[in-house]
Amino acid sequence: MTAPAPRPDVTGLELPELEAALDAQGQPRFRARQIFQWIYKRGVDEFAAMTDLPQALRDRLATDFRISTPRLAARERSADGTEKFLLELADGRRIESVFIPDTPAMTFCISTQVGCAMGCAFCLTAKMGLVRHLTAAEIAGQVRVLAGSLGLRHEAFNIVLMGMGEPLHNYDQTMKALRILADPHGFALPPRRVTLSTVGLVPAIERLATEPLMPNLAVSLHAATESLRTELVPSGRKYSVREIIEACRRLPLQKRRRITFEYVLLAGVNDSPDEAARLARLLSGLRAKVNLIPLNAAPGIPFERPSDAAIDRFAGVLAERRITVSVRKSRGRDIRAACGQLIVEGGRRSPTQRAAALM
Ligand code: SAH
Predict the structure, then answer these.
(1) How confident is the model at residue 341 (pLDDT cuts 50, 70, 90)?
(2) Pocket test for ligand 1, best of 220, 221, 328 (most atoms within 8 A of CB)
(3) Where are the domains of the chain?
(4) Confidence at residue 1, expressed as pLDDT on a 0 to 100 scale
(5) Residues 6+ apart with CB under 8 A from 43
């Protein structure tokens, strides 16, 4: 006997897909728009509550489809207003999403994978390894849960794909989630409010250029020299700094848009004025800005945060060379919600992964 096919999850469908599914059942296509409005604008996650749909249709939808929503397992609030959401997925896996208020907009930091395969030397998520990719429903679902829990469903907010995982390693589901979130009958989130942060997977960066909903791009560079970068970002071995920068130069940028280069500052490793000068040379002529992220230290991370003086010196060298530079204020460190601090304990992991996580 074969198991019955699972009912399709409406939250993983783009509007045209839902329209086609309803059409196939002989339903008018505008029902899809109504369903989108219920789910995204009113936060309803049961067909029974969609009171402007005929009762018979509500019953039919409930047998043919499902609406899945990540379960809020825990919520923690930092002294600075940052909030960390621990969400449980249908298979029991857990991920974290972070709400960062007023930066200057409301920002949701969203995960794209459970764990991550990129292995950055200073990142806690890397210690989990890649457990699995998230589906588009799970990526967009984080936004639904955060917007709903925070009462921001009708406010403008920004999304940064800077939570757990490498978004370009999970390209199709990530882009699908952005299309779902951009739909005018749902959150209507414009691509200029989305920033995708990547370790620099060159073919995927090139593919981004072909997307109708191209988000802002942030590239995690962390070093201007090849050998240092390979040490810090092992997955970077595949694409050299030079190739990444070239791909960025080719990226068509809309007016006033710039590429952000993220640079985690590690004391005595990549924070010298010489490295700053090399970085400035590398980026010259690019519409770029550099976002310095002083390391968020954690047990098991074999690096230290530079002194404020070293951070200022590094930023100063860039500014002197006319590179726009900012220093990321660390938010939510007291609840371990800051960059690189997202790691989920428990869940089913291999003994080696568990050991690595505790190191
Ligand atoms: N995989 C993507 C997005 C996730 S991380 C990427 O690499 O860009 C978002 C940012 O946090 C990246 O720039 C990452 O390098 C940085 N980060 C990771 N660990 C950190 C730490 N311990 N302290 C400060 N920033 C960290």
Answers:
(1) confident
(2) 220
(3) 10-64, 71-329+336-343
(4) 61
(5) 144, 147, 148, 153
109 is catalytic: no
d(CA 347, CA 332): 24
In CATH, which superfamily holds the domain spanning 71-329+336-343? Aldolase class I (3.20.20.70)
> Ligand 1: which of 112, 161, 162, 169 to mutate, judged by most atoms within 8 Å of the beta carbon?
162
Give the pTM. Answer: 0.93
**Ligand 1 lining (C-beta closer than 6 Å):** 118, 120, 122-123, 162, 166, 197-199, 220, 262, 264, 293, 295-296, 301, 339-340
Q: Is the separation of the CB atoms in 56 and 308 below 8 Å?
A: no
Residue nearest to atom 4 of ligand 1 (CA): 162
Cα separations (Å) of 288 from 156, 206, 250, 304? 25, 17, 13, 27
Q: How confident is the model at residue 332 (pLDDT cuts 50, 70, 90)?
A: confident
Give the H or E element holding residue 143: helix 136-149
Atom of ligand 1 nearest to the CA of 218: 8
Q: Report CA(233)–ligand 1 centroid distance (Å).
A: 10
Residue in the block written with tokens 């990719």: 133
CA 265–ligand 1 middle distance (angstroms): 11
- The yes-or-no answer on residue 262 being catalytic is no
* Omega before 28 within 30 of 0, i.e. cis: no
Terminal-to-terminal C-alpha distance of the chain? 46
Overall size of the chain counted in residues: 359
Q: Which CATH class is domain 10-64?
A: mainly alpha
Please say whether the dihedral angle defined by the alpha carbons of residues 249, 211, 171 and 73, taken in this order, is positive or negative: positive
Active-site option among 96, 138, 262, 275: 96
